[in-house]
């Protein structure tokens, strides 16, 4: 018997996922645990492995389609079975939505038509319409219903483009973003544009580059990033401070030890663990930086879970280095490298992008002198690392004599929530980060 391919539940709060790309086509051989398709959820983008070895027999759900968890999206046949389909099946929700819209439209025409049609053919459609509208809420996920309640939206007004007319998250968000278009016309006429514009576009980044003047839909990740950035700005009272750090000592230390470090430990020596370690030392001195606001109370977290922002070709993600305060320098480097590699290869688990208490981001890797990052909620602070450049600095020796020297310099910024963190505390925190980096004494492993 063929093996069903199931849309997995990537975390307790995840109720649906979008298939962004099939990595195999019907008729292709697959090995168990080999990457089979890519999905996008509210938490992560991930590659889903094949549940069995054999031949990809059928693709039931096409790219760009959002379905609930545990939905059968395809089947794998054993090597001896012939593929049931030779090509991907078109997305089932578009025809279903179009058919439902057409039936509603035709029913209304029949009900209003003056022609002497038989009573039996004219009366059922009006009776069916309320039943269909009453079923709209049942054809939606808990997340969609939660969003609808928060925005005071009647789901009977929202066109469902999912399987069997199911309302997806994209449908409800599109309805919220276009309130005028959604309320200015009856429900039936608005279904068709929604069904065409949302599911027919893939959620993954377009294969070809967009050109000036093109209008392309946001990916799921871009929508989530946009929503969270706005929410953070509305939630936290953002204030920023910036410190200039003489990074020469660490630049020299890394240059001296990087080859031996990699040979000994099997991982490259980068600058990021220096910044993370300095921040951890300062957090241990000023734990309010690691705290968060819960209602009218302050949650002081026992552990330091550091979010490390990773830039991807298709967006930004912040995997979390759990219990970072318990790791030595080598442990920090290994953890940072592992999270970065798995973020870029879409192998992160949902729990690995949750639970951060403090975040570090590195806009300097692209040449920025410094950045003013937005706080990663529910954190109360995020440290931005600028580019490392050589600059003339005034250097004072032990006898108090000043001279000008070429030094490696980095600018660090702290964005903090002024509701919780006072400016004096933020400055003292950053002063300790600066002191730790300029006078580095810890072994690099």
What does this protein structure show overall?
Strand 13 and strand 14 form a beta hairpin. Strands 9, 12, 15, 16, 17, 18 and 19 form a seven-stranded mixed β-sheet that branches. Helix 1 runs antiparallel to helix 7, helix 10 crosses helix 11 and helix 10 crosses helix 12. 33% of the residues lie in helices and 22% in strands. About 19% of the residues have low confidence. The chain is of the alpha+beta class and 445 residues long. It has twelve helices and 19 strands.
Total strands: the figure is 19
Helical fraction equals: 25-40%
Largest sheet: 7 strands, mixed
As residue ranges, the low-confidence spans are 86-138, 179-208
Overall 3D shape: globular
Number of helices, where a helix is a run of at least 4 consecutive DSSP H or I residues: 12
Q: Which structural class is indicated by helix and strand composition?
A: alpha+beta
Rg over C-alpha atoms, rounded to the nearest angstrom: 27 Å
Integer average pLDDT: 80
Could you tell me how far the N terminus lies from the C terminus, measured between alpha carbons in angstroms? 53 Å
DSSP strand (E) fraction? 15-25%
Jot down its keywords.
445 residues, alpha+beta, seven-stranded mixed sheet, 12 helices, 19 strands, 22% strand, globular
Provide a compact summary of the structure.
With 445 residues, the chain is an alpha+beta fold. The chain has 12 helices and 19 strands.
């Amino acid at each position: 018997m063929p093996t069903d391919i199931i849309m997995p539940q990537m975390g307790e709060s995840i109720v649906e996922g979008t298939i962004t790309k099939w990595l195999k086509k019907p008729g292709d051989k697959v090995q168990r645990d080999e990457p089979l398709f890519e999905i996008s959820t509210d938490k992560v983008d991930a590659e889903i492995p094949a549940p069995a070895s054999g031949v990809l027999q059928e693709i039931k759900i096409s790219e760009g389609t959002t379905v609930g968890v545990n939905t059968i999206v395809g089947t794998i046949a054993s090597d001896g079975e012939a593929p049931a389909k030779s090509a991907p099946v078109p997305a089932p929700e578009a025809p279903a939505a179009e058919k439902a819209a057409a039936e509603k439209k035709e029913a209304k025409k029949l009900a209003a038509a003056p022609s002497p049609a038989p009573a039996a053919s004219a009366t059922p459609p009006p009776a069916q319409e309320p039943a269909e509208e009453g079923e709209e809420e049942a054809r939606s996920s808990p997340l969609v219903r939660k969003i609808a309640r928060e925005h005071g939206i009647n789901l009977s007004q929202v066109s469902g483009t999912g399987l069997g007319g199911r309302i997806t998250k994209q449908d409800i968000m599109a309805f919220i973003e276009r309130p005028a278009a959604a309320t200015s016309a009856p429900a039936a006429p608005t279904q068709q544009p929604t069904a065409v514009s949302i599911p027919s576009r893939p959620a993954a980044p377009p294969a070809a580059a967009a050109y000036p003047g093109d209008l392309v839909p946001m990916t799921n990740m871009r929508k989530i990033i946009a929503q969270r950035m706005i929410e953070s700005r509305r939630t936290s009272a953002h204030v920023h401070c910036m410190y200039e750090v003489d990074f020469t000592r660490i630049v020299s230390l890394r240059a001296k030890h990087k080859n031996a470090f990699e040979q000994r430990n099997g991982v490259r020596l980068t600058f990021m663990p220096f910044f993370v370690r300095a921040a951890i030392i300062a957090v241990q001195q000023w734990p309010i930086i690691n705290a968060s606001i819960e209602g009218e109370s302050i949650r002081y977290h026992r552990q330091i879970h550091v979010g490390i922002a990773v830039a991807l070709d298709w967006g930004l993600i912040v995997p979390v280095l759990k219990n970072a305060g318990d790791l030595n320098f080598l442990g920090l480097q290994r953890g940072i490298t592992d999270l970065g590699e798995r973020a870029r290869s879409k192998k992160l688990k949902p729990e690995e992008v949750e639970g951060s208490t403090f975040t570090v981001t590195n806009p300097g890797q692209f040449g920025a002198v410094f950045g003013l990052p937005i706080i990663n909620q529910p954190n109360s602070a995020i440290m931005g690392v600028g580019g490392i450049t050589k600059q003339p600095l005034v250097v004072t020796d032990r006898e108090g004599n000043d001279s000008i020297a070429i030094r490696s310099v980095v600018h660090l910024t702290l964005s903090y929530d002024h509701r919780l963190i006072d400016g004096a505390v933020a400055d003292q925190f950053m002063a300790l980060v600066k002191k730790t980096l300029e006078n580095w004494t810890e072994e690099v492993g």
